[in-house]
Amino acid sequence: MKARIALVFVAALLVWACGESRPAVTATPALWEVTGTEGQHAYLFGTIHSLPENVDWQSPEIKRALQASDRLVLEIAQLDDPGTMQQVFSRLAAAPAQPPLSARLSPQYRPALARVLKQSGLVEESFAKMDTWAAALTLAQAAQGTDDGESVDRALMEMADGKPVMELEGTYRQLGLFDALPEQEQRDLLDAVVAEADTAEREDDTLDILWRRGDMTALARETRRGMLADPELRQALLVQRNARWITQIVAMLEQRQHPFVAVGAAHMAGPDGLPALLRQQGYKVTRVQ
Predict the structure, then answer these.
(1) HEC letters along 138-183
(2) 94 to each of 63, 78, 132, 172, how far by Cα in Å?
(3) Residue 116 CA to chain centroid, in angstroms?
(4) 243 CB contacts (<8 Å, ≥6 apart)?
(5) By mean pLDDT, which of 84-93, 203-212, 253-262, 268-277 is the weakest?
(6) 227 closest CA partner among 50, 46, 13
(7) Which residue among 129, 141, 162, 206 is least crowded, i.e. fewest CB within 10 A of its CB?
(8) Whole-angstrom Cα distance, residue 34 to residue 65?
(9) How confident is the model at residue 25 (pLDDT cuts 50, 70, 90)?
(10) Exposed, middle or buried by CB within 10 Å (0-12, 13-18, 19+), for 28?
(11) How far apart are CA 101 and CA 48, in angstroms?
(12) How confident is the model at residue 278 (pLDDT cuts 50, 70, 90)?
């Protein structure tokens, strides 16, 4: 099991691994400039977890914005410390004497679970001492297969060229969001993961394409599908996190820091997204790409 499993759904369904050989593609993902009346300045950039290496997304606008910023702000800063991520996951996921995984799943999804387990080479018994949320993330990662794509977050860290890298959440708090979910919500998450994993091979790379185009209207619609259609999961994994992040971003702006904030693109979409929330705080937010 990869340590990167921790990030599968925290990026709000925008984890998309693509290892195929494809023609070169130019992408123009969404980028916003934030300004305040007293000289406050920041950029907002929606990321995607993984892309084929042939996608050229590092536009002059993104490079200039990062150069003009004094720090890079990510959801998690320790992306190159898989050992710590794995330790946190293992500690939070441990739960002895759990019911069989199929018993924690809605009956209509049990045939799909059997197919997903067979395709991924896993056995149900391996989840006997694992919390339901952790089992869901494990299945999601297994269904994705090998991640051969480029991590946008890691690429931004390289592009930052020595600037401080800050984090809004960190590994422990991010995984703790799942661990704190009531059991029924964890089971709703498991249902959604199994349903999506069972159909993944028949779906187009919709989210990847929308991100490349910077189509935030369509991305906002996508963030109300799947597990985020569940009101409680949406509140815990998207809306409440955005509200906490806005508090931190506003504090940076008030301290006259100039952050380049890069988080999963779902967190930028719609009325609950970071651009809309900053506008509500009185900041001017302008789409620059």
Answers:
(1) HHHHHHHCCCCCECHHHHHHHHCCCCCEEECCCHHHHHHHHHCCCH
(2) 42, 22, 10, 14
(3) 22
(4) 277
(5) 203-212
(6) 13
(7) 162
(8) 11
(9) confident
(10) middle
(11) 30
(12) very high
Distance from C-alpha of 263 to C-alpha of 270, rounded to nearest angstrom: 15
Q: How far is CA 274 from CA 41, 243, 264, 266, in A?
A: 15, 8, 11, 10
Q: What confidence tens digit (pLDDT) does each residue in 217-254 have?
A: 999 988 888 778 888 889 988 999 999 999 999 999 99
Q: What residue type is 213 in one-letter code?
A: R
Q: Strand, coil or helix: what is 248? A: helix
Q: Which residue has the higher pLDDT, 202 or 48?
A: 48
Residues found in the chain: 289
Burial class (CB in 10 A: 0-12, 13-18, 19+), 182: exposed
Both tokens of 38, joined, read 């007293």
Burial of 91 from C-beta contacts in 10 A (0-12 / 13-18 / 19+): exposed
The number of beta carbons lying within 10 Å of the beta carbon of residue 209 is 14
In sign, the C-alpha dihedral spanning 4, 234, 52, 157 is: negative
* Mean pLDDT, rounded, of the chain: 85
Q: Are 102 and 124 in contact (CB under 8 A)?
A: yes
pLDDT of residue 150: 63
Q: What angle do CA 63, 66, 70 make, to 5 degrees?
A: 155
d(CA 48, CA 17): 10
Whether residue 9 is predicted with pLDDT greater than 50 in this model: the reply is no
Q: Report CA 75 to chain centroid distance, whole Å.
A: 9
73 is written with which tokens? 């702000």
